From TrEMBL, chains A, B:
Site residues (Essential for prephenate dehydratase activity), renumbered to this chain: T266
Catalytically driven reaction(s): prephenate + H(+) = 3-phenylpyruvate + CO2 + H2O; chorismate = prephenate
Protein name: Bifunctional chorismate mutase/prephenate dehydratase
Function: Catalyzes the Claisen rearrangement of chorismate to prephenate and the decarboxylation/dehydration of prephenate to phenylpyruvate.
Annotated Gene3D superfamilies: 3.30.70.260, Chorismate mutase, Periplasmic binding protein-like II
Annotated organism of origin: Salinicola corii
Domain Chorismate mutase: 5-97
Molecular function GO terms recorded: chorismate mutase activity; prephenate dehydratase activity
Length: 366, 366
């Protein structure tokens, strides 16, 4: 029951309470920044080139925020605010520079901002190997590259780049991705005869398209953002793209969530020059080279099974060097600093032609 | 003096302190969101279509943050965090939709994000009158358009759009803008023979260009972001653009801050459907039509002088209707709800052929 005569009083009291909260928030954020500055001070006293950004520490903070968030804000939104607070505190010392697979408006940019916050400086690159090169050259601190899509599987360029690189994986970002059929203000919805999208998105929505637009021409373009941009000028065209591209180009939704698999998601890796200590909930990625012999794969996997290490992904790629016949990319739960994992990897190394640990890193929080 | 043996202890203590602060921050942000939800509840009880976003209230909060910020974070960074916290609290009820003059990577996008935070949904438009149209149609809550540049003066399209529109100005954003000469990784710095930029940026750097690159071809393009994009593929070209475009396209700096005037800045207006109550430090914009008679301008300005109202800007534009000869756009300090301002405007209205108040709004905080 509301009485408009007492509303102004309620509002005044609420606003006074908000002002008090804000003063307290400001005091605490400042004290947090002060603590972060002291952490940096302690670190640089020992090592002038010390790294201030600690992926395992940030993962722990965000995990706690997600677990303990009391509401009413969604826990993702609360974690986003903490991401920004940490980003600001870190930038006070030295802003993080991040290269990602561009162009803007893509999921990879979204993943980069989600992981590093807006106080980081982010740079789009034209290709995955450029991202690797910028990180290796020290022009940026970290890179963000797509590595896995639940429908299409692995992003091959990224795996190939890892085979040539000495970089470490220092984190992962998982984006749940929804695809929509989008049109512009000039589109005639009953006359859609052409649909633009990235080949991966077409693959992820194939059944839906076969059922609803069997006769429309499917034109593959370099990104969903590009697809969204194109339909702005063609009355007979639509695009398949996500919410971000829809917002960027002000498009309308013809149909929402048209992906064939409801759990559609894309995984991105953060790559950097340093290895990451355990955060408590970690994953490890290794690449293993095996000769193409009968039983080779079984021999490779057996130690994981025996030590009850939880494998989360296995990908096979033909070797490019000729020296190896096959390489396997394996992800499993655990950190290379854990004794059990050390034992497994020793056994695997003994059976393989070659093995390389790409990195142990916190399981994606956000 | 640092002793590496006690550093881990220091670090552990600092991190424990940060954890305690984070718990407290989370509790306070949640309570703030709860209060904001209650404010929304009180408002919708009286009016189901009530507007939750109050520009004057947000300006007051940010002003207080800027004044009271104790450091070590810069006050702009602290205000940015509060902007995000308010943006998140507001989005809990109903996310704000904002149209801006696109494309992405432009200063107008930067102004929109600076003013509304990242929980707002922002949509780039191809032209200034499209921004007006989207706000008028109710497709978005607010629009962001450039209105003034300290070197080039007024952005004429924006003023023309105001003459036809019933929208109110509900805020302003001022960006201090630096221009840099930028090159890509393939540019041969000693062979730069072509420079891309927006015509306004060329105008703002003319003297510097005449001194340093008198023979380079100057190619005007639609935005500085476009200029930055173009130099990625031409070894003999450079671009004039700001930090954001440099970051977006991963360009290197040939020369920094090349603008001829060190106080170079651009002003943007926030346009909406509602008028804004006083925030305590406000500005008012009016448009006045006068016949082209001797002494007309003096007659128009005299009341401002007599009431000691501080005029901050005066622009003259030829009337497009034919009915008026000239229109003047005037900005002054104060709010139309203040008695002194009411008196001035009454006198001005008596002397003018026509007068329209475009809006009273908080002086830009960030």
């Amino acid at each position: 029951m509301s009485d408009s005569s007492n509303s102004p009083l309620d509002l005044a009291a609420l606003r006074q309470r908000i002002d008090t909260i804000d003063s307290e928030l400001m005091r605490l954020i400042s004290e947090r920044a002060e603590c972060a500055a002291q952490v940096a001070h302690v670190k640089t006293a020992d090592d002038p080139d010390a790294v201030f950004y600690r992926p395992e520490r940030e993962a722990q903070v965000l995990r706690r925020v997600m677990e303990e968030n009391p509401g009413p804000l969604h826990r993702e939104e609360m974690a986003r605010l903490f991401r920004e607070i940490m980003s600001a505190c870190l930038a006070l010392e030295r802003p993080i520079k991040v290269a990602y697979l561009g162009p803007e408006g893509t999921f990879t940019q979204q993943a980069a901002l989600k992981h590093f916050g807006h106080s980081a400086i982010s740079l789009p690159m034209a290709a995955i190997d450029e991202v690797f090169r910028e990180v290796e050259a020290g022009a940026v601190n970290y890179g963000v590259v797509p590595v896995e899509n639940s429908t299409e599987g692995i992003v091959n360029n990224t795996l190939d780049s890892f085979m040539d690189s000495g970089l470490h994986i220092s984190g992962e970002v998982v984006l749940r991705i929804h695809h929509h059929l989008l049109m512009s203000s000039i589109t005639r919805q009953d006359k859609i005869s052409r649909i633009y999208s990235h080949p991966q998105s077409f693959a992820q929505c194939r059944k839906w398209l076969d059922a609803h637009y069997p006769h429309a021409e499917r034109v593959a373009v370099s990104s969903n953002a590009e697809a969204a941009r194109l339909v702005k000028t063609e009355w007979h065209s639509a695009a398949i793209a996500g919410d971000m591209a829809a917002q960027l180009y002000g498009l309308e939704y013809v149909a929402e969530k048209i992906e064939d698999r409801p759990d559609n998601s894309t995984r991105f890796l953060i790559i950097g020059n340093e290895s990451v200590p355990p955060s408590g909930t970690d994953k490890t990625s290794v690449v293993v080279a095996m000769r193409n012999e009968p039983g080779a794969l079984h021999a490779l996997l057996e130690p994981f099974h025996r030590y009850q290490v939880d494998m989360t992904r296995l990908e096979t790629r033909p070797s490019r060097t000729g020296a190896w016949n096959y390489v396997f990319f394996i992800d499993f739960k655990g950190h290379v600093d854990q004794p059990g994992i050390v034992s497994v990897l020793e056994e695997v190394r003994g059976r393989a032609q070659d093995m390389k640990v790409l990195g142990s890193y916190p399981v994606g929080v956000l």
